[in-house]
Amino acid sequence: MQSNICAICHYGEIGLKGKNRRFFERQLVSNIRELLPDSDVSAPRGRVVVSSNRKDLKEILERIPGIVYFFFAEVVNSSIEDMEKRAVTLLKERNFESFRVTVKRSDKSFELSSYEIACKLGEVINKETGKRVDLSNPDITCWVEIHPKVTYIYVEKMKGVGGLPVGTGGKAVSLLSGGIDSPVASFRTIKRGVKNIFVHFHAYPTTSKESIDKAKSITSKLSSYQGETTLYLIPFDELQKEIVLGAKESLRVLLYRRIMVSIACEIAKKEGAGALVTGESLGQVASQTMENIRVTDDAADIPIFRPLLGYDKEEIIEEAKNLGTYDISILPEDDCCVRFLPHNPETKGEIHVTKTEEERILNKDSVIREVIENSEREIIRPRFL
Asked: Which end of the chain has fewer beta carbons closer than 10 Å to its terminal beta carbon, N or C?
């Protein structure tokens, strides 16, 4: 009997893509190979098979968008004798009182039907373990998938991220603060197949490097879901001082947001990205009222995605904890966005009023060009690579 272990990955939404299905499958395989470069990855119809000796294989597969669930399967020859031996050994390693056997048979030329195979395996398992068969509510299920050359046997399914493979939804530039919201918003788009390029605005050296360190840590965490990731570190201190000294106090925040969006749009052009991503939630702070969002949108020449628009703070916090970015986001920092905040920020901004103020104090084209020239571009890789 030949036996070894591999991971069998199943997708969901990809299977509904019709004639485009192969495109999504190929991208998923490519993403798995990027995150597991020393592994053997193949894609028989309806699933992806990964053979790897990595101890962190489960941790990595759990983070790859497009995988709905996966399992570690024993691979045996497609003979009833080998199936019986391995199924008994596998279940003897588990603690249970009742079981069932579920068989899927893609090889229709096999001598027995799926029902007959399940009965034979169930009978042997019952005899060897003394455990009872329960088809309705078993403690454990032994799944058997029979293919022409090999058979997979497994007892535990593990949940994946789901969604679509990164790269199938294009690229976007994500405005990454050091806060709780923007990493969650970024992950939401990553899960829909969008490759994120991150932009972080900082006030170093006027402030400490804490916000830069946080941005790198968060980017590293998110790169474990999308692979190698680009991070732009944008110096915002001098530009912020220019706005503070020259603009109406009530419009400072709106002007910050507009110039950040304009800079991000230029970076999107450089990187071939088709949209921006922000962590804004409607009404959460003064800059996120409906009126002020319209003023911010006016500064962009590409769409701005706001995945968290209808979320409340508790929902965002809960998702950040599940994502693993919450503990990083709550670390103390000198955030450039909260420096020089007005006492009474505008909550119902008007586009023409804000644009007039912007044009009065800034030579926008030269400012954007200078800021981008002084920015740093870093490549962040997942820590497990």
From this structure: N
Q: pLDDT for 24-63, tens place per residue?
A: 999 999 999 999 998 999 988 778 999 988 889 999 999 9
Distance of alpha carbon 95 from alpha carbon 84, whole angstroms = 19
Q: Which tokens in the block code for residue 358?
A: 């912007």
Give the relative orientation of helices 290-297 and 252-271 as an angle to the nearest 10 degrees: 40
Q: Which residue has the tokens 């879901």?
A: 225
Q: Which residues contact 180 (CB under 8 A, 6 or more apart)?
A: 279, 316, 317, 320, 325, 326, 329, 330
Q: What is the pLDDT of residue 337?
A: 59
Structural domain ending residue among the three candidates 136, 159, 182: 159
What are the Cα distances from residue 268, in Å, to 190, 195, 275? 16, 12, 7
Residue 214 has pLDDT above 50, yes or no: yes
Kindly provide the b/e burial profile for residues 87-123, where b requires at least 16 CB atoms within 10 angstroms of the residue's own CB.
bbebbeeeeeeebbbebebeeeebeeebeebbebbbe
Where does residue 378 rank: exposed (0-12), middle (13-18), buried (19+ CB within 10 A)? middle
Residue 165 lies in a domain: no
129 plus 268 within the same structural domain:
no
pLDDT tens digits, one per residue of 171-207: 999 999 889 999 999 999 999 999 999 999 998 878 7
Q: What is the pLDDT of residues 302-344, one digit of tens each?
A: 999 999 999 999 999 999 999 999 999 998 766 655 556 677 8
Sheet holding 275-277, edge to edge: 304-305, 275-277, 171-175, 195-202, 229-235, 376-380
In 44-194, the DSSP E strands lie at: 48-51, 69-77, 98-105, 132-133, 140-146, 150-154, 158-159, 171-175
Counting Cα atoms < 13 Å in the Cβ hemisphere of 96 gives 24
Tell me: do 23 and 106 sit in the same domain.
yes
Residues 146 and 229 occupy one common structural domain: no
Full domain range(s) for residue 35: 3-159
CATH number of the domain at 149, please: 3.30.2130.30
Q: Which of 124, 159, 194 is the last residue of a domain?
A: 159
User: By percentage, how much of the chain surpasses pLDDT 90?
Assistant: 75
Are 186 and 219 in contact by the 8 Å Cβ rule? The answer is no
140 touches 101 (CB < 8 A): no
